Amino acid sequence: MAKLQAPPLSLLDRYRGHDTQALYSATVIVTGGESGHGRASGVARSDDGNLNVHLRLPKALGGPGGGTNPEQLFAAGYAACFHGALSLLAAQAEIPIPGSSVEVTVDFSRDPMDGLFVLTAYTRIRLPGVERAIAEELVRHTERYCPYTKMARNGIRNVVALVRSDLTDKR
Asked: pTM above the 0.85 mark?
């Protein structure tokens, strides 16, 4: 088995195009499972089969728990992406960050603006052995590079489309 490698530093090279340039696409399909409700009993499967997760509504939201929920998946993706960007920038600056970690907590909350729901992410970075001023600068730069942080700050381009409906229009 080949040794796992970090991505190349060339990922930090700036792109100068007019439109976004997709470097990778991930597709996950969620089905409703036993209750017919994706969040309560769904299954999330990636198109390549590497992700196959049973979703369960957490006890705090009235569910049985015992499975993964969307907030955990989002927190995992955010933490992994931030840690990846942090690692690349540290390598570029020749700053060793052994033992580093990124912890993300995602709150699913009521939104006082519209009475519905909102997500809040709290990100905590640990850089043991790195001088505080250097660590702070590295984290500030990482916030500019990490697409999850950019999405959380600026929003995300989102296209929602119904691709197929088996319901017949009865007008």
From this structure: yes
Quick one: which of 138, 74, 77, 143 has its CA closest to 107? 74
How many whole angstroms separate alpha carbon 13 and alpha carbon 9? 8
Q: Scanning the structure block, which residue is given the tokens 């969040």? A: 39
Q: Using CA atoms, how far apart are residues 149 and 153, in angstroms rounded to an integer? A: 6
By residue count, the chain amounts to: 171
Query: What are the tens digits of pLDDT across the range 73-107?
Result: 999 999 999 999 999 999 999 999 999 999 999 99
Instruction: Name the residue among 116, 119, 9 with its Cα closest to residue 71.
Output: 119
The domains located in the chain, with CATH, are 26-68 (2.20.25), 70-157 (3.30.300.20)
